[in-house]
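Researcher: Let's do a round of design. I'm pasting the structure tokens now; please hold your answer until I've finished.
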């Protein structure tokens, strides 16, 4: 008995070692951390480090534009490879990674479904709803939420030090409130009420933070998603009957969907209305509405808050942006109280600021790994052809992709919107900018996997960035640590505390007058000018 068990154990270990060696050798042409060929522990540690974007970039910088991060996982910063994998007739498919993006306990959604035919069909039916083509109120709905955003700031967060009112606000929180209310309004005609209540009414954002460990583990060991089908674990997943968190959001979405069916069905021209017109069933919609909320809120919020941060902490950039828009307002090219999307698109420096924001902080940093087809493919890695066997997943490193020095210039770590402005009208400049534009557009993915909400996201950014800097001065409370950041495929920002004061044309004049009226003098510390050391 004993020898038989021993033989079995030895046979299993030998089999395991042989399979591992085969896996390690299959991608031996690709550099990476020494342990990455043997296990996914390095990947797990990287994902849980809170700075996966930077660690992936270190690996790509060291080992090449496509490098190894797991036994059968590569990561790439190569824009051409991403385009190739996502192209309409490409044989690459979604990798097992996508299964981890299933949020509804029973149903797939457009982001998680791996079956190509089903995905394609869903995409065709949902595209016009996401693009807002069947929603005549889309722009007005966004404007309304932006004005609610300003009402919240005006009523609770504007500091007026001269009146003894000292306030700060965490802009990571209120920018999320803004995009969450926008998406709920344009998706099903009713806001969640984040902005008007100045709170997270469902505990959704808090719940997202609680889920971070699971998001990290499932993103690496994607096969674990299968165990979630077990009744015991399934019961622990968010449900639409929950009182708080994602489950409560699911319940809200389910109720909005239910209202559209039955004999007293509400008919509205919004995303949901468009999806219904294109034949999505009630069950499909219950799953898709959760995806709308998760896909459509955090990414835009992080881009908005970080672009605001970069613009407002760089006086020459802010000055130039304001000069551009003030000039356009004076020329009657900007609607009030909120700029139109079409007008914002005509402001080159505003566009440069937005593109630079998306470049320096691409909002989606998750793997979004594509699966190499059976039979394998040859790919180019920095000028060398390498074979990748079928079944390998190729993830993207969006952070590294947006930092290619040969595309964006040697100062790609710096927020500099000027890089987007042509230095002359020559062909070389045109192709430099076209290449940068093509690459930064990839932060939305590409081809048959590209973001369906791109137009909505850009509309929000076009409006919110310029209208905020027109109304307010924003100053981070701490320059040494302006915010806490955790990167887990998206950004979790906390304590992004800013002082917000009203921007009034006459502010500078008023201050100068105050000094005159009260006879203030700069009381300099004794020092060099009067020849004293100031120490006595
Ligand atoms: C700056 C903001 C945004 C960025 C950077 C962004 C980026 C992305 C990326 C990288 C993907 C996946 C690409 C892939 O799988 O290869 C994606 C997919 C998607 N996004 Fe966005 N997104 C943004 C905003 C939005 C908004 C506002 C919405 C909804 C209104 C939205 C809806 C979607 C949907 C539905 C998909 C799935 C498309 C499909 O599977 O065919 N996104 N987005």
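Researcher: That's everything. Go ahead.
Model: Designed sequence:
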């Amino acid at each position: 008995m004993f020898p038989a068990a021993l033989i079995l154990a030895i046979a299993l270990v030998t089999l395991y070692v042989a399979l591992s060696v085969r896996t390690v050798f299959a991608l031996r042409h690709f550099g990476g951390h020494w342990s990455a060929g043997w296990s996914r522990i390095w990947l797990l540690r990287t994902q849980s480090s809170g700075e996966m974007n930077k660690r992936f970039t270190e690996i790509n910088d060291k080992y090449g534009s496509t490098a190894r991060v797991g036994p059968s996982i590569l990561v790439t910063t190569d824009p051409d490879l991403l385009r190739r994998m996502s192209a309409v007739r490409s044989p690459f498919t979604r990798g097992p990674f996508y299964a981890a993006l299933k949020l509804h306990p029973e149903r797939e959604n457009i982001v998680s479904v791996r079956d190509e035919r089903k995905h394609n069909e869903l995409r065709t039916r949902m595209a016009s709803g996401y693009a807002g083509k069947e929603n005549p109120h889309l722009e007005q709905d966004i404007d309304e939420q932006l004005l609610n955003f300003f009402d919240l700031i005006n009523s609770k967060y504007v500091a007026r030090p001269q009146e003894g009112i000292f306030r700060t606000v965490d802009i990571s929180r209120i920018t999320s409130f803004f995009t969450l209310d926008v998406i709920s309004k344009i998706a099903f005609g009713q806001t969640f009420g984040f902005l008007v209540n100045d709170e997270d009414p469902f505990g959704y954002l808090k719940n997202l933070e609680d889920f971070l460990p699971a998001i990290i583990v499932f993103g690496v060991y994607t096969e674990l998603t299968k165990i979630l089908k077990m009744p015991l674990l399934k019961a622990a997943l968010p449900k639409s009957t929950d009182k708080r968190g994602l489950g409560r959001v699911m319940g809200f979405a389910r109720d909005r969907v239910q209202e559209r069916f039955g004999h007293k069905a509400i008919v509205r021209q919004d995303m949901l209305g468009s999806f219904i017109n294109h034949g999505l069933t009630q069950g499909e919609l219950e799953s898709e509405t959760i995806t709308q909320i998760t896909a459509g809120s955090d990414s835009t919020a992080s881009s908005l808050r970080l672009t605001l941060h970069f613009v407002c902490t760089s006086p020459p950039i802010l000055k130039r942006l304001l000069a551009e828009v003030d000039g356009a307002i004076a020329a009657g090219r900007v609607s009030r109280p909120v700029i139109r999307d079409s007008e914002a698109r005509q402001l080159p420096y505003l566009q440069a600021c937005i593109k630079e924001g998306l470049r320096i902080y691409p909002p989606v940093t998750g793997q979004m790994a594509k699966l190499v087809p059976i039979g394998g493919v040859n790919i180019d890695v920095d000028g060398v052809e390498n074979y990748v066997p079928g079944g390998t997943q190729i993830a993207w490193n969006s952070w590294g992709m947006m930092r290619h020095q040969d595309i964006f210039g040697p100062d790609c770590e710096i927020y500099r919107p000027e890089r987007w402005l042509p230095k002359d009208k020559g062909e070389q400049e045109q192709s430099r900018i076209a290449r940068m534009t093509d690459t930064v557009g990839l932060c939305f993915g590409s081809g048959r996997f590209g973001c369906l909400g791109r137009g909505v996201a850009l509309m929000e950014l076009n409006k919110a960035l310029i209208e905020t800097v027109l109304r307010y001065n924003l100053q981070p409370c701490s320059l040494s640590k302006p915010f806490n950041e955790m990167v887990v495929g998206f950004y979790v920002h906390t304590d992004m505390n800013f002082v917000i004061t009203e921007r009034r044309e006459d502010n500078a004049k008023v201050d100068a007058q105050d000094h005159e009226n009260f006879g203030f003098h700069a009381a300099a510390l004794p020092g060099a000018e009067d020849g004293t050391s100031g120490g006595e």
